[in-house]
Amino acid sequence: VQLVESGGGLVHPGGSLRLSCAASGFTLSRFSSYDMSWYRQAPGKERELVARIYHFGGRIVFADSAKGRFTISRDNAKNMVKLEMNTLKPEDTGVYYCKANFGQDDYWGQGTQVTVSS
After folding, report:
1. Residue 73: burial class (beta carbons within 10 Å; 0-12, 13-18, 19+)
2. Is residue 80 within 8 Å of residue 3, measured between CB atoms?
3. Of 47, 57, 95, 100, which is most buried with the most CB atoms under 10 A?
């Protein structure tokens, strides 16, 4: 399974960004069977969960810091998951990673940098 993130960049506080994760290489199970997540790693900090959308587009969970500002969605026909981020804050700065999970198997992308600064 390969995951490629895109959409990061530099944005002013209060701005918006949309991150995309393109997934490929599924053999034993289809993309729709995977739980898809976005994680963030800020400088000097551990990687933390931002949002997750469960397989078949079911339950969605957000970190408290993302609630009300971020939206996660998936397109199972296109093998894509997106993270819409609004009202961005400097503390949202970090490298954002896409993760696919199926059972005990985790797959990570290379990450995309998001910098929120004036």
Report:
1. middle
2. no
3. 100
Q: Residue with structure tokens 């009202």?
A: 87
Residue 27: per-residue pLDDT: 81
SS3 category, 56: helix
What is the rounded distance in angstroms from the CA atom of residue 20 to the CA atom of residue 92? 16
pLDDT block averages, 10 residues each, the chain of length 118? 97 98 90 96 96 89 97 95 98 98 95 97
**3-class SS of residue 55:** helix
| Distance in angstroms (rounded) separating the CA atoms of residues 92 and 67 | 13
**DSSP track, 29-49:** S-GGGSEEEEEEE-TTS--EE
